[in-house]
Amino acid sequence: MKAKLFFTSLMMLTLPLYGQTSNDDIILTSREIGMASVSKDVRSALINGLTYYYSVVESKPNYAVIVAKKKAYKDFTEVVLPETFTSTDGKTLTIVGIGDKAFEKCRSIKKVDLPKTVRVIGEEAFCNTDVDDLSLKEGLILIGSRAFFNNDIKNIHIPDGVQEIGVEAFYCYKSTIFQRNNSGTLYIPKSVYRIGDHAFAMTRNGYGAWFNSKREILCLPDHINLDNCKKMGISREPVEDYLKK
Predict the structure, then answer these.
(1) Closest to 126 (Cα-Cα) out of 102, 143, 152, 142
(2) 75 with 97: CB under 8 angstroms?
């Protein structure tokens, strides 16, 4: 069923997700976050002066997942979220996930800044937006398939602690990528043990060769090498340069 994208590919995992907030430990599974992502019990709250929609994690009602709501975010220019917010009934909730398709096709969004409490970014969460300023924090564990598909992110920095990056997570074919000759940086921490096909691919008009050869690689997991990098959408040239360091 399409509405349950969260449970396809890597989201079937039930890994415990651990992390510190200022108040307590976040201990939950990706399945629990996924269930909140597709919940029909959707509520609204004012966060940083903007109205967001969320569902709570059933087993842990003080944890919230930001979810999709048709046309609710179409005029947003940025998604800057705090670790916690106050619900309309006065409860303090911690933001632990971004649901599937939450901000899909919200083309006015240029900036995304997520707190260290976020453990999972759902599939297609920011697909086909126009993000060029992305800040992810340590605490994040899973980045879903096509989560940032077709954005214009010059410097991609995956925070330490991330374990999985889904298929086509950062795939891009925007013309602006080629206008600036694909310059930028790529940081993938050693903690990442699984990367989906074409996760970092950049192609012209959605097909053809890999064009991210000008990107400087700052860090790669040990399992990425010259034999498998292209499958992930990373050109051999910058990998060769990185391995020579």
Answers:
(1) 102
(2) no
For the segment 100-124, what is each residue's pLDDT rounded down to a tens digit? Answer: 999 999 999 999 999 999 999 999 9
Which of 82, 110, 96 lies closest to 27 in space, CA to CA?
96
Please give the pLDDT value at position 177. Answer: 56
C-alpha distances (whole Å) from 196 to each of 9, 23, 193, 201, 232 are 9, 34, 10, 11, 6
Q: Tell me the helix, strand and coil percentages in the chain, rounded to 5.
A: 15, 30, 55
Q: What is the DSSP letter of 229?
A: G
Q: Which of 217, 149, 207, 212 shows the shortest CA–CA distance to 177?
A: 212
Measured from the Cβ of residue 78, the count of other Cβ atoms closer than 10 Å reads: 15
- Read off the pLDDT of residues 180-217 as tens digits, 9 standing for 90 and up: 555 688 999 999 999 999 898 876 654 444 545 677 89
Amino acid sitting at position 40: K
